[in-house]
Design a protein that fits this description.
Distance between the termini: 18 Å
Number of helices: 6
CATH architecture of the largest domain: 3-Layer(bba) Sandwich
CATH superfamily of the largest domain: FAD/NAD(P)-binding domain
CATH topology of the largest domain: FAD/NAD(P)-binding domain
Bound molecules: NADP nicotinamide-adenine-dinucleotide phosphate
CATH class of the largest domain: Alpha Beta
Order of helices and strands: EHEEEHEEEEEEHEHEHEEEEEEEH
Radius of gyration: 21 Å
Number of strands: 19
Length: about 300
């Protein structure tokens, strides 16, 4: 019987593992399809405290794993298929590989995946002019034109943020009206550096000889016209999907968008002994450091839960 199973190996998962490991709880970490989480798809991370010279995303995750393993965390590279609370209060955590782990508590830290357009070559261009994170990558594109795709709060926020660096920001939206809240929309549309491109669909990424984005082709959904827009980077901001499909039928409360609902001020879910941490519960901040902080909170909450069980 495990004390705690941590599902997910992004910043939240590893931080939970470091804390529960240091508390001698001997955590078992189940790594998913993308070990290391979203940071493994980024290049340099400049805003994680403690790294004034910056750190590569995959290196940061490797260091977190080493730190967790140093304190006794064990890792299995398995995908969880279901979680079920048993009558005796323990959890059965089943994996697609056919294993069934028993644990007294569980921390879900499976993150969220940014949505992309699904265009050819899109995935291989991540880090080469296609990204989903303006906070992470905006500073790498000073004094050049860039584009943001989307019409929600994220797109408006990212476009406004990017005006600090870029010479121009095209806000490409598939309709002629933003979905964003009025305040965010007004701020973006009132910024001289932001030019909206309405009724527009990006159909293709065009690259230079080094394989880096140099432009996109845009299809106008009303006029049917095609045009080319020169941009050095495309920030795709069309939403995120929390990685919670495996929780369907588990009884864990999810919100309308599928995020695990936390219990107000702590990381408890609606099921006793089951906690969540990081982007799987957060559609607002979504930062490496906030996920790490929440991972620490989940570990402390799990520790207290286990201590109370011991009575
Ligand atoms: P969102 O509100 O779901 O907006 C996604 C946008 O992407 C929509 O404009 C949508 O177009 C567009 N889109 C979706 N799929 C597309 C596709 N395949 N091709 C082109 N465009 C596509 O997502 P979000 O902006 O990430 O916001 C998520 C939640 O976080 C919201 O509740 C938001 O209010 C919140 N948020 C809050 C803040 C803040 O308050 N500071 C900041 C960021 C996010 P349509 O409009 O045509 O559907």
């Amino acid at each position: 019987m495990e004390n705690v199973i941590i599902i997910g190996t992004g910043c939240a998962g590893w931080t939970s593992a470091i804390y529960t490991g240091r508390a001698n709880l001997d955590p078992l970490v189940l790594a998913g399809e993308q070990p290391g989480g979203q940071l493994t798809t980024t290049t340099e991370v400049e805003n994680f405290p403690g790294f004034p010279e910056g750190v590569m995303g995959p290196d940061l995750m490797m260091r977190m794993q080493q730190q967790a393993e140093k304190f006794g965390a064990r890792v299995e590279y398995e995908m969880v298929s279901s979680i079920e609370k048993q009558d005796d209060g323990t959890f059965s955590v089943k994996t697609t590989g056919g294993n069934d782990y028993a644990s007294k508590s569980v921390i879900i830290a499976t993150g969220a995946s940014p949505r992309y357009l699904g265009l050819e070559d899109e995935m291989s261009l991540i880090g080469k002019g296609v990204t989903s994170c303006a906070t992470c990558d905006g500073a790498f594109y000073p004094d050049v034109p860039v584009a943001v795709i989307g019409g929600g709060d994220s797109a408006c926020e990212e476009a406004t943020f990017l005006t600090k660096f870029a010479s121009k920001v095209y806000l490409i939206h598939r309709r002629d009206e933003l979905r964003a809240s009025k305040i965010m929309a007004d701020r973006a549309l009132g910024n001289d550096k932001i030019e909206p491109v309405w009724d527009a669909e990006v159909r293709e990424y065009l690259t230079d000889e080094e394989g880096h984005v140099r432009a996109v082709t845009v299809h106008n959904r009303v006029s049917g016209e095609h045009s080319e827009l020169e941009v050095k980077c495309v920030f795709v901001a069309i939403g995120h999907d929390p990685n919670t499909q495996f929780l369907k039928g588990s009884g864990v409360e999810l919100d309308d968008e599928g995020y695990v609902v936390q219990n107000g001020h702590d990381t408890k879910s609606n099921i006793e002994g089951l906690f969540s941490a990081g982007d799987v519960s957060d559609h607002v901040y979504r930062q490496a450091i906030t996920a790490a902080g929440n991972g620490c909170q989940a570990a402390l909450d799990a520790e207290r839960y286990l201590a109370a069980l011991e009575g």
